[in-house]
Amino acid sequence: MEVLEGFKILLLNDYNPNNKITLCRLYFIIYIFKITMNESILKFKKVTYGYEEDNPLLKEVDFSILRGKKITLMGQNGAGKSTIFALITKELSPDSGSINVENNVSVALARQVIPRDQLNLTIKEFFEKCFKEKVYDIDPKIDEVLEIVNLEAEHDRIIKSFSGGQQARILLASALIQDPDLLLLDEPTNNLDKEGIERLKKFLIAYPKTCLVISHDADFLNSFTDGVLYLDVFTRKVEQFVGDYFDVQEQTSVHQDKVNKKNVQLSKLIQEKRDRANFFAHKGGKMRILAKRMREKASIAESEKEELRREDKTIHSFAIPPQEGLSGVIIHITKFKTIKKQKASERKTDIEIRRGEHLLLKGPNGIGKSTLLESIVNGTADGVKITEGTKVGYYRQDFSNLNFEETVYQSLSRSAGEETEQNMRNVAAGFLINGDIMGEKIGDLSEGQKGLISFTKLVLEKPGLLILDEPTNHINFRHIPVIAEALNKYTGAMILVSHVPDFVHKIKIDHTLDLEK
Predict the structure, then answer these.
(1) How far apart are CA 154 and CA 70, in angstroms?
(2) Is the CA virtual torsion 289, 293, 294, 295 positive or negative?
(3) What is the DSSP letter of 472?
(4) Which sign does the torsion angle of CA 499, 502, 503, 505 carry?
(5) Segment (H or E) for 88
(6) Nearest CA to 470 among 361, 386, 384, 377?
């Protein structure tokens, strides 16, 4: 009945076939109408979940997903997107409310990263763990899904021997091998090169079943999205939109303008009623009754004001201070190794990176970029010489250089050196790391929050050589221009690996080393 009433109100009062926003609202009502006709594959109804009763992570969340639709789940780092996935897969249980998955619907999740306790499994063992019961003759199925994600791999090869991009493909394949009715993808483009992202786009466009995707890559999402679920970090609720992210931006902008105008009018009315109430109150007698009515009308008008949805907070502009006392050539690379089909080959080059110069390291997934960076950090890279006394700052794509058992406070304190605690906290606050997060274990944070912790540590460490391996992975797209600006202005030596062209184009690049060419 509520949906039909919504149709009536919209069509009688607000319908304009030439207005894109009005049409979007009509499509949304039709979408909700279909949901009420039991065509949804998944429903969240008044779902609340949280670590603290008075401050839950999710608060009375409502949304539904239709069968066969491809939906995006967006929101700020740490808002609870991965928690929603864990609730769908029943890894977690809601504190209140209900989650209904249609009968006999199978669900499979491709996580952001491979669990650390599974990195020593073989390919075959890893895929076998995807099933509750033993699957006989699983090898052909493994070959089939690996071909879909464009990865060749021996079934006895250890997972941790693959690059970050190859592991991302394995994660996707581990979900596909289950042939689920509902496919959940958590940041599937992280670590993927351009070719991998294009293949994933084509796959999702052709995928005939239901898909829910968490991603911060707006261009990727807009290539296949039917609708958007937006998890608001402030209200802890989910807003549901029809269309891609750009449609959401347009709808939100129009709604905000409308609410602003309404609130301005109400503010004028409220002030007018209060002024009249004050005037009548001083008259005494029966005028005080009139004054009371004026105040009541002002209160009613106040209650009619709408609160605007607050946009995601963006990290503050920041700078990574370079190590003092360094000059001239910071790092000299004369040779390096590449990896193809598990075979290493040595190649020569001659690149000198001076203070203030930036090197872009290029190449497809699996060619050895991360391996080269790690060997440089460890001091084991043959053919690479770093000026003695140079402090190296390392952003590792899997965050394995962070101690997951430490609290955020302990980790940042080790990086702060002689910095005061107040300055350390001020730097952390610029990366949206508040007092509550300081006491949490790093292993309990979202991947996006771990990324912001890593940038905080780099600011505190003041490195002379900055090594960055896919620094935009897991990071909210709103933060990326701020990060690009900081790296562009960094005046130490820097080596960067990134598969995100828009990000790289914002940064001054002085040298490029393509491991494939």
Answers:
(1) 32
(2) positive
(3) T
(4) positive
(5) helix 81-88
(6) 361
Q: CA-CA distance, 250 to 113, in Å (whole number)?
A: 33
CA angle 427, 429, 433 (to 5 degrees): 115
| Beta-carbon-side half-sphere exposure of residue 499 (alpha carbons within 13 Å) | 21
Torsion angle in degrees (nearest 10) through CA of 17, 22, 27, 29: -120
Query: Is residue 240 a contact partner of residue 63, using CB atoms and an 8 Å limit?
Result: yes
Q: In this structure, are residues 223 and 232 in contact, taking their beta carbons and an 8 Å threshold?
A: no
> In which element (H, E) is residue 301 found?
helix 287-303
Enter the tokens of residue 144.
């089939």
Q: Which two tokens stand for residue 228?
A: 């958007």
Reported as type and span, the H/E element at residue 483 is helix 480-488
List, in order, residues 6 or more apart from 200 with CB less than 8 Å away.
149, 172, 188, 189, 192, 220
Pairing of strands 329-340, 384-386: antiparallel
pTM of the model: 0.65
With a CB cutoff of 8 Å and minimum separation 6, the contacts of 131 are: 178
Helix pair 164-176, 194-206: axis angle to 10 deg: 10
pLDDT in single tens digits along all 517 residues of the chain: 333 344 334 434 444 545 555 555 555 554 444 444 447 899 999 999 986 667 788 999 999 999 999 999 988 777 788 899 999 999 999 999 999 988 889 999 998 888 888 999 999 999 999 998 888 889 999 999 998 888 888 999 999 888 888 888 899 899 989 989 999 998 888 777 778 888 888 888 888 899 999 887 777 888 888 888 988 877 888 888 887 766 666 666 666 667 677 777 878 888 888 888 787 777 777 777 787 888 888 788 777 766 555 555 788 999 999 999 998 999 999 999 888 877 888 899 999 999 999 999 998 888 889 899 999 999 999 999 999 999 999 999 889 899 999 999 999 999 998 889 999 999 999 999 988 899 999 998 888 899 999 999 999 999 999 999 999 888 877 788 999 999 999 999 999 999 888 899 999 999 999 988 7
Distance CA 70, CA 41 (A): 12
State the SS3 of 272-300: HHHHHHHHHHCCCCCHHHHHHHHHHHHHH
Secondary structure letter of residue 475 according to DSSP: -
Rounded Cα distance between 305 and 259, Å, is 8
Helix (H) or strand (E) holding 351: strand 343-354
Per-residue 3-state assignment (H helix, E strand, C coil) for 196-248: HHHHHHHHHHHCCCEEEEECCCHHHHHCCCCEEEEECCCCCCEEEEECCHHHH
DSSP state of 92: S
Element containing residue 183 per DSSP (H, E): strand 182-186
Neighbour tally for 244: CB within 10 Å: 19
| CA-CA-CA-CA torsion sign (489, 188, 31, 76) | negative
Question: What is the distance between the alpha carbons of residues 240 and 231, in angstroms, rounded to a whole number?
Answer: 9
